[in-house]
């Protein structure tokens, strides 16, 4: 990116810090963000369907080349936890999985194209990983220090992560004892791109935190529910780990948005590039037919009592739907009309 853009981006970032990117439903501790009203007018319908949403292409690049996700495991992670997340990422392109499948979910993301008409890549794979067991930047990170963590791992002396601006996604995953700016109050994860001035390159990245200790009722909903919302009931998570099972949908949310809006100048709705409303923002909290508000929509029940909505390789996952710009509502593989 040219330097002018970088300066602009830094300005945008300062503003972004104060703007809540969340639009659709989560049981946020202070539910006074009424931004959904702004998007939907006063007639929000189920599954986000609305004539008021204008998902638009702003001419920037999207990820049409094979996508490679590079996880950075920050803090303390169990092997079993890493396995769940790796298998989810590997499931995105596992087209032979039992339906409804994660690969079926990705089909909605593949409907987005760039200026040449090229679709988002069908291939998403797991790339080289890094461990950051000793909390290289401490247990409390800001949006800017997240970039410094990524820098450490793409410039590491031993086995640095490959620099792949075309298809590389750098996914910082923080363990339960790490706080990241705005975590729990306003976000469960976010994505952006790194600044050459900090990292040396423009690389699309995302952060997702394990909320198991800090706010499972918010970021691992509906596998946990917040105490301040007594009417809600938690459901059983499919892989026996509330925090990690809750992260899966947030990881999916961020990967879908990184693919369609990696430099925040491609696919988003709303008039404001400073607070872009992206394809997963519009469908947060919607996991099945009829979903909207605190209702997840129709889900699947396993014989073991677990709740999920799609299959991957060997495992089941609960993943929010994404905005389908062809039909103008949220869609997912477990929709009842398919
Ligand atoms: C949000 O919207 C609801 C329903 O329209 C309204 O009752 C409430 O006062 C609004 N909250 C704020 C902070 O504006
Ligand atoms: C590519 O995008 C177009 C436009 O949304 C869509 O009609 C087509 O089905 C997509 N192709 C694939 C392989 O998803
Ligand atoms: C992209 O991935 C597909 C497998 O899905 C593979 O056949 C193809 O060679 C890859 N392309 C590149 C450029 O790596």
UniProtKB/TrEMBL annotation:
It comes from the Eukaryota. Keywords: Apoplast, Secreted, Signal. Residues 1-24 form the signal peptide. InterPro entries: EXORDIUM-like. GO terms for cellular component: apoplast. Belongs to the EXORDIUM family. PANTHER family: PROTEIN EXORDIUM-LIKE 3, PROTEIN EXORDIUM-LIKE 5. This is Phosphate-induced protein 1. It comes from Citrus clementina.
């Amino acid at each position: 990116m040219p330097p002018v853009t970088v300066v602009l981006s830094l300005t945008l970032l300062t503003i972004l810090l104060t703007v809540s990117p969340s639009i659709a439903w989560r049981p946020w501790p202070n539910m006074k963000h009424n931004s959904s009203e702004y998007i939907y007018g006063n007639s929000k319908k189920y599954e986000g369907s609305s004539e008021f949403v204008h998902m638009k292409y702003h001419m920037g690049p999207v990820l049409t080349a094979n996508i490679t996700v590079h996880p950075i495991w920050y803090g303390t992670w169990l092997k079993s936890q890493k396995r769940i997340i790796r298998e989810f990422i590997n499931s995105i392109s596992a087209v032979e999985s039992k339906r409804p499948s994660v690969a079926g979910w990705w089909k909605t993301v593949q409907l987005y194209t760039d200026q040449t008409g090229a679709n988002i890549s069908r291939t998403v794979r797991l790339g080289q990983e890094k461990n950051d067991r000793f909390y290289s930047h401490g247990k409390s990170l800001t949006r800017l220090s997240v970039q410094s963590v990524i820098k450490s791992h793409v410039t590491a002396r031993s086995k640095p992560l490959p620099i792949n601006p075309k298809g590389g996604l750098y996914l910082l995953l923080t363990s339960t004892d790490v706080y990241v700016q705005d975590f729990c109050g306003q976000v469960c994860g976010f994505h952006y791109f790194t600044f050459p001035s900090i990292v040396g390159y423009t690389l699309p990245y995302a952060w997702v935190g394990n909320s198991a200790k800090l706010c499972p009722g918010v970021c691992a909903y509906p596998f946990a529910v917040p105490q301040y919302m007594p009417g809600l009931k938690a459901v059983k998570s499919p892989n026996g780990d509330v925090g990690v099972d809750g992260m899966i949908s947030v990881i999916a949310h961020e990967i879908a948005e990184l693919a369609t809006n990696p430099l925040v100048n491609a696919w988003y709705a709303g008039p404001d590039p400073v607070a872009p409303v992206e394809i997963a923002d519009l469908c947060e909290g919607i996991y099945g037919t009829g979903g909207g508000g605190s209702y997840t929509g129709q889900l699947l029940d396993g014989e073991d009592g677990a709740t999920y909505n799609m299959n991957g390789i060997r495992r089941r996952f609960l993943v929010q739907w994404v905005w389908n710009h062809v039909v103008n509502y949220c869609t997912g593989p477990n929709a009842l009309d398919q």
